Amino acid sequence: MGEWRRRVGFSEVTGAVFMLLAALLFVVVAPVRSSAREPWMNKSLSAGQRADLLIRAMTLDEKITMVHGVHPIPVKGYVGYVPANPRLHIPALKLSDGRAGVGNGAKDVTLLPAPIAATASWDTGLLNTYGRVLGEEQWKKGTNVELGPTIDVVRVPEWGRTFESLGEDPYFNGQMAAAEIKGIQSEGPIADANMYLTMNQESNRGKINSVVDERTLQEIYLPPFAAAVSGGDVGTFMCAYVKTNDVYSCENPHVLNGLLKKQIGFEGWVMSDWGATHSTVGSAEGGLDQEMPSDKYYGQALKAAVENGQVSVATLDEHVRRILVTMFRHGLFDKEQTGNWSANARSPKHDLFSRKAAEQGIVLLKNRGDILPLAGVSSLAVIGADGGNKPQVEGTGSSHVVAPYVVSPVEGIRKRAGAGIRVSYADGSNLAQAGSAARAASVVIVFVNTIEGEGHDRPNLELPGNQDQLIAAVARANPKTIVVLNTGGPVLMPWIGHVRGVIEAWYPGQEDGNAIAAILFGDVDPAGKLPLTFPRTAVEIPTSTPEQWPGIDGRSVFSEKLEVGYRWYDATGHKPLFPFGYGMSYTTFRLSHLVVAPTTAGPLPLDVHATVNVTNTGRRAGAEVVEAYIGQPVANGEPPRQLCAFAKVFLKPGETRQVKLSIDPRSFSYYDTAAHHWVSPPGRYTVMVGTSSSDLPLQREVTIESATN
Ligand code: NOJ
């Protein structure tokens, strides 16, 4: 050292300064170098090996810190937070809501159309992009756990969170959920399948007991969550507020340990919904890995339970391990997380996607006399508060997104109409005025809406306020009336016979007016289809009794069993107003040449495919969704038909394409509660193909000869 110093001519003073700098440098660099030396930071090890090594280095307090959130959150933004552990190089977990965009009051984010609008596209590719947009914006905001999607089957049409869910069919919801989750997770954040399980209403949601038989649980409510794991590889689950068969979701060993972790094979972690934890020992034993948003049951109380032996160290380690394995698997220890809550997450590309998704989700329900697309119109009257400057573009609650801008319907229509068409506007608060505005125009477009959101169900299926009267008054004044619905779910339409057109535009997000105008004027062909049934009357629904919804004495009895959504209409012979899977186009299509192979199958596993030709027989380009349903042998006791495959195809006028469908192997089976597994009894199964659940003109039989389960 002395020799070296003399050679470079350093004085004793500069030497001392040098030593000081070196010491400082050591302090700054040391953690990084030591992190590289920590065995769990070795990227060549598996996520499981890394988690095991890390757990061995953790104190009891450090483990407890991982299994609950902290509240209030010490940083800006987010709705859930687990602090970093610098000693062990564990990054913080930053959780944020996100159904139709980054939630929790974040600014500079994109408001997408509601999830139910996105699924109405029946396009898994679109759902994947929806997830990617959401994931990218969350990551830019610093979020590493994105709380979505909401994938529960819509059982009750009045459910306040229908808009943020995906639909009423287990297979459909599963396909959509998997596509969206893959999109979210490809951008960095870990997705969260919520709300698990039987969370099908908001009324009394903190206490309600879903009374549901095992077969229904297995066949209707579990499959979307199973698909989130098998098809989406989702990293986290959120257990719900409700009870399933007397036991709260977040301490329900059957639901968490049995169905989710053992049967489905979920290897990630389960966090509680906010305030949905009700116990320490019961939850720890029942399968809850993490309490959110704070430490009421999983802080000091859990530490004490471990110290006094009520909860074993092995049980705690298992919860911690699930969290750490998932974090390692998703690269949270290895990726630099530079995002922050103040970042601008928007981009013109995302604005464009928001519009495209809104357009693709719009469902044309009625078009008498081809009133749409609008042609040769000299004046338009836009009527309804929802058409003005405060349109219903999203739902409320944890889904709420701060929209960067909103294109109102009247604005979008005026812009698209241009100078040649006079567009008037009346908010509809005065029926007489609305009537005169309607009379003065060649065509009237009435905008109506529901207000839906977390925490409350809709009181009934009617449009709120005077909106039914408004439509009736306007239609009386001008028969060329088109109704645009901005609703999260079905509504009754007592005026349906008096209007020429009906469009379901859901909650369309920031591009509302542009998307609607594109459909009205025919710039875009409507290609959306209903992901839920629209009933004809208030009582002709699967859950019409108070025992079913909202429940009596805290019990909501799932007595409709498997007959959820269209299954009930098919089984009981009730005709809905608009069936599941229905939606019109401005062009026409023909389906032909259905081939199903093999036509005799077994033993398991079944690998049945169908091909069908789809021809665009009209004069303009458009898209058709081909839907396949299975009818099982009557002895199996299943609903008459169940969705088993679907595909969307875009076609030029006159074009024909062959569409391939892989039939969900599960659709040839039912859950045998005595045997505790799925069985596929020999017999004749019918594959039905068409363009809605009640328009299935092409059919073939598949005979299952021997099915060993
Ligand atoms: C309650 C909601 O049910 C859930 O979906 C949401 O993620 C949490 N609150 C956090 O906001």
* CATH architecture descriptor text of the largest domain: Alpha-Beta Barrel
Helix content: 25-40%
The assigned structural class equals alpha/beta
Query: If you consult CATH, what is the topology of the largest domain?
Result: TIM Barrel
What can be said about this structure in brief?
This protein has 709 residues and is α/β, with parallel strands linked by helices. The strands form six sheets. It has a six-stranded mixed beta sheet with strand order 1-2-3-4-6-9. The protein has a six-stranded mixed beta sheet with strand order 10-15-14-13-11-12, sandwiched between helices. The longest helix is centred in the first third of the chain and has 26 residues, at 12-37.
Polypeptide structure, described:
The protein is α/β, with parallel strands linked by helices. The protein has 4 domains: 1-37, no CATH class; 47-329, Glycoside hydrolase, family 3, N-terminal domain (TIM Barrel, Alpha-Beta Barrel); 356-561, Glycoside hydrolase family 3 C-terminal domain (Rossmann fold, 3-Layer(aba) Sandwich), CATH 3.40.50; 589-704, Immunoglobulin-like (Sandwich). The strands form 6 sheets. It has a 6-stranded mixed β-sheet. Strands 10-15-14-13-11-12 form a 6-stranded mixed β-sheet, sandwiched between helices. A hairpin with a 7-residue loop joins strand 25 (683-690) and strand 26 (698-704). Helix 6 (124-140) runs antiparallel to helix 14. The longest helix is centred in the first third of the chain and has 26 residues, at 12-37. The radius of gyration is 28 Å and the shape is globular. The protein binds 1-deoxynojirimycin. Residues 79, 97, 147, 194-195, 273-274, 398 line the site of 1-deoxynojirimycin.
